């Protein structure tokens, strides 16, 4: 990383914090692209935590939360999805959520082989990463001990349905090169430097969304919604009341409908969409730490 980030130190929570190991595990995507992997390593961790970033974001946006959990005894991992961060692929293009899920699932399975057998595994999903984490929890329920989803892309606001969805699907079929309007990033965070940080970050994509990407995301959301009843692992959703992308009503409905018997909904009235950059993140981090520690203790007592 260059020196562009130094002026944000002390102003954005992740600025100046980086995963100490990059490309520690050689991994290729479903489409044969080289993927960038990251970790905070402990030889004998309490558990393995995987963090999946949001759409058009990158793993070092999550470095502060990763460092926090590492300092509390965990090994923490991240991956730049194809076309994101430092991984290969077309910037701003997502061909299929299923492909991202496949890449992420492979990363989890390969990583666990480097650690003691039966080490617990928890997944963190940020926005679109929440969709990915939810799908992995369905596919690998036998090895996943819990998922924490931060403003997850699990359902769109009601004013985005159903006409807009049909229009996107049709345009994607006609010509995938169309683009939607550029997203207003002031809707993502109350931190006034958030937009400037993203614009200067060479590993973030801030252009217009390709219509094919929008269609792929919509398809991925529908897939997860159909599989709700199959989510059996402990789950937490962290959601803000001022999220202008994901409706908190949709997130609350998701937590009510999912199949897990151990589920919680943490609601913060003033919080915007990008939870990791919001003022409440320190409180949320400690709360998440306590949640994981409690489930590890419960698992230990059951053995």
TrEMBL record:
Pfam families, per database record: Hydrolase_4
Chain ranges of the Serine aminopeptidase S33 domain: 45-280
Listed name of the protein: Serine aminopeptidase S33 domain-containing protein
